[in-house]
Write a structure and sequence with these properties.
Blueprint: H1 3-8, H2 19-26, H3 42-51, H4 59-85, H5 100-124, H6 134-155, H7 159-166, H8 182-215, H9 219-228, H10 236-269, H11 281-307, H12 316-347, H13 350-361, H14 365-377
Helix pairs in contact: 5-6, 5-10, 5-11, 6-8, 8-9, 8-10, 10-11, 11-12, 12-13, 13-14
Amino acid sequence: MNVTDTINQDKTPPNGHNGATMMHSAFEEPFREPLVLGNPSLHDVTEKISSIPVLTPNLKYMITLFVFASMALWGLGCMGYTIATGIGVWGLNNPVGWGWDITNFVFWIGIGHAGTLISAILFLFRQKWRTAINRSAEAMTLFAVLCALIFPLLHTGRPWVAFYWLTPYPNQMQMWVNFRSPLVWDVFAVSTYGTVSLLFWYIGLVPDLATMRNYVKSKLGQTLYGIFSLGWTGSMRHWHIYEISYMILAGLSTPLVLSVHTVVSMDFATSVLPGWHTTIFPPYFVAGAIFSGFAMVMTLLVIAREVLDLKQYITLKHFDNMNKIILATGMMVGYAYAMEFFIAQYSGNPYESSVFINRASGDYAWAYWIMVSCNVISP
């Protein structure tokens, strides 16, 4: 008998229920929607998820693969054309030094933040619903960082030597990188973020790789999965080391969500252009990164959920939780938009004010209001 029953065993209320029942019903946890529909066993979940990499592709899968592979090939062709012709094809000239490349760089870095946020921060807060989406988000992070890396390299005009000159390693060259340049800050920030994200993704994947090792039938598959699963046996010792390592990497990854996009925002904030050199950029960019990153995760999961038949495991409850985060960060971004106008007027600087007035009512007002509609009004 528990403590509550002991206290209330001699106190019978008028309605005939004992006190223990009343207290239990009063403090009973409300019903939670299940994270996996259909009440499958652990074996059923393992069989379903493990079968995806070895399934014979169906028509929906092949159509989806064709569409996205075509887009990737188009992008590679455009990169080749840019390298062969020069970055002038982006419309860059003397007053427009940064345009297509820096915009895409910031876009992809922002997209890549959601993987770390979903996996690390939600893990630290013990949010169980992350388990249906964290693998997709982590993989998206790695690809997003690779896409982001493309644009600073192409921006230099000679990508075959840019990486060599931008890497600050001990050498005998007469000229080192300029550590006051935001471009070098990006190298440090993005390479650190990419390395930690790769480790975080891989360490979290080790038990799953061991599961695939035991699932696949081919000798080559078993050998490769065995190598990458690092000899995982599922013993108590392995789980103990795994959970400590995963917790440490989650703790390292969490501040990276803030630091990396803060550094990226300084590409703009250290300039002398009106409307750019402002201290609102770091929090503004971080909120926008989480906002856009979650939106990209949801976009990909909607497609994967349909193509791979994962509606039982990626439920509307998961989308609802992600939508709440998108709504919160969208409101932060909307607040930042409004603050930019307020600070421009409050500063008394006519150049700062004219930039924002022109942004909302000038030649590119249509683009500005599309941005506000997509980022603030529609969420």
